[in-house]
User: Fold this.
Amino acid sequence: MVSLTRSQPSALSSILRQLCPRCRSGRIFRSTIYWGFPKMHDCCPACGLHFNREPGYFLGAMYISYGLALALVFAFGVILWVLTSWRLDNVAIWAVLLFLPFAPMLTFLSRVLWIYLDQTIDPETK
Ligand SMILES: [Zn+2]
Assistant:
């Protein structure tokens, strides 16, 4: 017999859709992170989980953002290195320039990843 109840979306799907790590139905941002500068909800609209648990909470997200940025710049650099015959300094400059439009998206994505990491290690119970 087929069950008609919906299961929770996977963690990867929830991260990409910026959903709350506890209930996976409430949105973390008021609009999508893939365009513009969205504002965050203070609490999950569905379950009330605090997204900004304390002052300076998102400092850890900066480390994630830094790592993602380095990986993306490196990927752009490798692609340019393979496809062009440019000198290394030109490849590095263009890799950073190609990365810049993705910087806001990575910043907000790193916040989502930080919330998920924090909730995995130290879940808020109430
Ligand atoms: Zn929630």
